[in-house]
Structures are given as structure tokens and as C-alpha cells.
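Quick start: what a row looks like.
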Amino acid sequence: MGPAAVLGLFDSADALLHAIPKVREGKLGRLETYTPYPIHGLDEALQLRRSPLAGMVVVMAFLGAIVALAMQGWMSAVDYPVITGGKAPFSWQAFVPIMFELMVLFATFTAGLGMLFLLNRLPFFGHPVLSSRAIRGITRDRFALSVEAEGGSLDPEAATALLSAAGAKDIEVLSLPARAEILDSAFILRALGGIVVACVVAGGLMFAAIKLFPVLPPMSHMQEQAKLNPYKPSTFFKDGHGMQYPVPGTVARGYLPMGPRTPEEANGLVNPLPRTRENLERGREAYTNRCAVCHGPLGDGVPTLTAAYNAKPANFVSEEFRKAPDGRYYWAIVMGKNAMPSQAADMPEEDRWAAIHYVRVLQRAQNAKDSDLEETKP
């Protein structure tokens, strides 16, 4: 085979940078440099185009985020829609962590694989520079400039003279060795056979290890771990009970405990929230989310459920409940009433009182007085 490149060595980075324009004027082939460390301004001297790697990474990162958004949106809103915490099935805010992870994954693989296989076209273990005499100096303190054949034959005499005139100290003509085909049928069969043998050996060894050592600390079976089941005795506490009452004098954090202990005591509670537009809007939202399904959108006890719902919810617009104090509603919300379970875990303190305000609005709307009907003056 003909010469693949003519390589010249220089003692310093400045000498290499000054030699590049002189050799480039000869237009004998493609110029390439080999240095022991990065040199500022080398790309401009070789007139290399800006690497497209950054643009490739940005595009693939954006694609990864879009793929994650579409994947989660399809699973959460189309394939298996589930209402969680009252949020819409397509709540993109909850998708952001996975979008970020897939964005990083796409960008990382694009940067690594794109740089190696598309731009640098590595690995290439048969490159002639790797087997040259100059490789020892290049990997230490010497700087190399090569004129490489590009699309045709290379004139080694002209390239040698051009490098010598540019100040090269040592010049070497490199030939491209015969490149063996790696992905031939024999190599593929050997690789697949090796993979199969490795999997079989590893599986057999793991099976034998599990049989010999079924329980090996720190790995142990979940059903054999130390745990305390509900309502089971325990030797850890003096009374032998596994479930314990709160420590006497414990102070609740984040909310106030229920003060009244009987419905009669609760009747004396007064709604602490002012009857403002904001509180009424909040009460409407709380009533719609937690109460309207049984008591009806108008509070008249007509549920939105089917006839299979046999319970008889209270009619808030009746005279009995219009005269009932706010504390009676509050007690039912916290403690539950008949078929209705306690709503305390799902309705914060302010939502409970706001919902009671909204019930009063429904009652007034269904039992309006003449004084409520005021004519609008022009």
C-alpha cells in the first residue's frame, strides 16, 4: 500500500503553530496534529470547522425530555388514568424529574457515542501513528504535524520537503497497515459463543451459591426479618404491648386537636373564619370535592350517585339543618355521621369551616327572603 501520511516532529507548541500555515499552503493533503496536551488556537490554525457535538447534544436532550413527557402523559392520562391527590391525570409538573433524567440520558449517550463513532470514528487500533517511531515523543513532550492522504495518493517527497522547510526536526513516512475485518462471521460466532458460555457459568455459580448459602448476611429474606406486627406482643416495652399510646402530655404539631368531646359540647363552637368572598370560594371548592357527591351540588340531599347508593344523606336546606349551629356540622365532619366516615384526614381546619360557610350560602339560596331580592336601579 502507498504512504498514508508524512509525520514531522517539533520541539515546542509555538513551533508547531508557526509551521501549520506554511504546510497548509502546499495543499498536499489533510493536516492533522498530535500533541501531548491541548493547545489553545490549534483548531483555528488548522481551519477546522466548529464541532457539531454541542448541537447534537442539545437536540437529543430536548428529544429526551419530549419522549419522557409523552411517555408519562400516555401512561398517566391515556393508558391508566388515576386521579392522585385531586390532580389532573396529565399533571406535567410531576413529570419533570423523569424528563430531566431522560434528557441527561439522551444527551450523555449522544455525547459519548457521537464523539467516538460519528466524529472521531474511534476506536481505530490500526492507525499508523500508533506504530510509528514518533509515538514515544508525542506522548511525552514532542509535537507532531502530519500531512495525510485525502481521497487519493500522497507525494511523500513533496510533503517531506514542505515539513522540513517548516522546521520539522524529525520526519517519518507512515504506511497504512492492512486493516483486518473485525465483524466477520467467525468473530461474531466466537463473541456470541463466549457470551452464552459466560451467562451459563455465571447462572450456574449463582444457583449453587444460593443453594449452599440461602441466607447470607447482610442479605436475608424479607419474611424472616425482625419486625413487629400490629396487635402483637413485644418484649421491648415493659407492658408487653407492641402498639403504644402517645406519651402523656404530647403536643400535636401542625393542627389543633378536637376540643369538644361530645356533640353537645361541639354545638357551642363558633366559625372562626370571616365570611369573605375568598373563604366562600374556598368553601365551595372543599364542598364540591368532599361533600357534593353525597349531599348534592345544592345541598338538598340528592346525591350524584346511582340508585345502588342506599344511604340517606342529610338535607342541608331543610329547616332542621338551617337552625343547626355550625358546631354540629363541624362535629360531623371530624367524627363522621352514620354512613359518612370522618373527613378530618382530607379536609384541613380552614377547609372545614369554609365548607360550613358555603353550606349556609346554599341554605340561603334555597330559602331566600323578600329582603334578599333587591331591585337593581338603573
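That is the whole record. The CA atoms of residues 1 and 326 lie 99 Å apart. Strands lie at 3-10, 30-34, 143-148, 170-175.
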